[in-house]
Amino acid sequence: MAPKNDGSAKRVMNKGAWTAEEDSKLSQYIEIHGAKRWKTIAAKSGLNRCGKSCRLRWLNYLRPNIKRGNISDEEEDLILRLHKLLGNRWSLIAGRLPGRTDNEIKNYWNSHLSKKINQKQKTQEVSTVQETTPQLKSQGMAPMKEEGAKIVGSSEPTFDVNEFFDFSAEGSSGLEWVNKFLELDEDQWFTDKR
DNA sequence: AACGAAGTCAACCGCTAATTT
DNA sequence: GAAATTAGCGGTTGACTTCGT
Fold it and tell me: Using CA atoms, how far apart are residues A38 and A30, in angstroms rounded to an integer?
């Protein structure tokens, strides 16, 4: 679908890093008018930015109660466990970590955790293949290299969570089912960590 | 001190889903 | 119900910083 030509299409928007002045303008506008209708916010706040850019800036940096940096061990554990459960559903994972944004968690995963997991996975794969291959061969099956890799550190969960859980019935911050699942998973988790 | 490689993270892009007209 | 608009998501990029040589 083609966007309406409102006369602003040819206007060159600012890109790149936000300045303190831009942050201030955006914060002030949202404080008065609320964080709705980003296109309008972008147009009326005096920022030469697109609505998308304003929304991202607000959600990731300017909104209240944002935590920055220093992800604790507890938070890291939770991210690992939620990723194991949900895959790359960063916004859902972020919903369980107050003050954290999906972008931050995604970055943290890509720069820190994926490496940790790859290392762990490599060591596990060696032992798993050694243990399972003779048995699988005897059953006429190939070693499950791909499937095995999905257990930890893949971008997809090992099952379709939508088939198991009705996301439409859950608020983003009230995912009771996650806690239940994690409680169920707790024994296994601490067994893994020992 | 200088340089390149690797790591980090803010921001953009493309797409889909949800909502409004 | 269809079209248009808006919101939101995840993947990717690129500028900047840190580290190693």
Answer: 10
Instruction: Say which nucleotide is closest to residue A1, CA to C1' distance.
Output: C4
Average pLDDT along chain A: 70
Q: What is the dihedral of CA A147, A151, A156, A157, to 10 degrees?
A: 110
Per-residue pLDDT of A116-172, as tens digits, reads 777 776 667 666 656 655 554 444 343 333 333 333 334 444 555 554 544 444 443
Q: Which nucleotides in chain B have some atom under 7 angstroms from a protein Cβ?
A: 7-14, 18
Which value, to the nearest 10 degrees, does the dihedral of the CA atoms of residues A133, A134, A136, A142 take?
50
- Comparing CA positions, the residue from A183, A109, A182 lying closest to residue A152 is A109
Neighbours of A116 (CB within 10 A): 14
CA–CA separation, A135 vs A161, rounded Å?
30
Q: Are A27 and A66 in contact (CB under 8 A)?
A: no
Which residues belong to CATH 1.10.10.60 in chain A? 20-62
pTM of the full structure: 0.70
- CATH second-level architecture of A20-62? Orthogonal Bundle (1.10)
